[in-house]
Amino acid sequence: MKIRILEFVDGASKAEGLTVIIDVFRAFSVACYAIDAGASRLIATAKVEDAFRLKGIYPGSLLVGERSERKIEGFDFGNSPTEIIQNDIRGKTIIHTTTAGTNGLVSAVNAEQVITGSFVNAGAVINYIKSINPKHVSLVAMGFRASESAEEDLLCAEMIEAGLTNKSKIPETRIAALKETSGKRFFVPENIGFAPPSDFFLCTMTDKFNFVLKAYMRSDGSINLVKIEV
Question: Which of 42, 63, 117, 197 could cross-link with 75 by S-S, CB 3.0 to 4.6 Å?
Fold first, then answer.
């Protein structure tokens, strides 16, 4: 098994084989919490206008997402796992768009199959990849706003790679230390309305969910994310 770690949208477009698009803070943590909370369908889009168009197709659907980390005007929720778990979304179609994560999904056009990755289901990602045993694995760390390397995404990629190659596990202390680096923004008082401290802790709970979310391209260019138990 050949494993490559890539970054950003450019990395997603170059990814091949079984590809994991990683966005820990917060897109693919949010996606897992939404599915666990009972959402009936999860659709990822790259563009805000596509999200609004899809809402017209699926009556009663909920718009979830961000630009510059903040909730988009006209959306139901921001890109916050805290908001997801505090609201009843059972049976709802979730339409999700973010600056980094969902753009990575739609850009992975050369991959054989695509799944999402974050700390909350990293163990399931590892087990799923082992069950497939592909020749090529691409781990794409989407980074902060898809333009700056993000420690949490690269650490998640390292964690998955270690699990696949039977290296030593990543110490939990390295994840906790993100509170002082890339996760500091969740503890800035002026950010509490859109990026509360609880988001940090929800996104850094390792192996909370025993499923992966597999991406299926739709005819309209957006992505269906489908839960696969591992």
Answer: 63
pLDDT of the residue at 126:
98
In this structure, the strands spanning 136-141 and 211-217 are: unpaired
List of domains in the chain: 2-229 (3.90.1560.10)
pLDDT at residue 30 in the model: 98
**Three-class SS state of 116:** strand
Q: Which amino acid is at 64?
A: V
H runs (alpha helix) in 15-67: 27-36, 48-57
pLDDT digits (tens, 9 = 90+) for 71-126: 999 999 999 999 999 999 999 999 999 999 999 999 999 999 999 999 999 999 99
Among candidates 22, 72, 29, 16, which has minimal Cα distance to 194?
A: 72
Q: Which two tokens stand for residue 191?
A: 């950010």
DSSP 82-103: HHHHTS--TTPEEEEE-SSHHH
Residue 169 corresponds to which tokens in the numbers above? 């596990």
Amino acid in the structure at residue 33 = Y
* 3 state DSSP class of 133: coil
What pLDDT, in 10s, does the model give residues 129-155? Answer: 999 999 999 999 999 999 999 999 999
Q: Is 35 within 8 Å of 93 (Cβ atoms)?
A: no
Q: Show the tokens assigned to 207.
A: 């192996």
Distance between CA atoms of 219 and 230, rounded to whole angstroms?
A: 27
What's the whole-number mean pLDDT along residues 7-33?
98
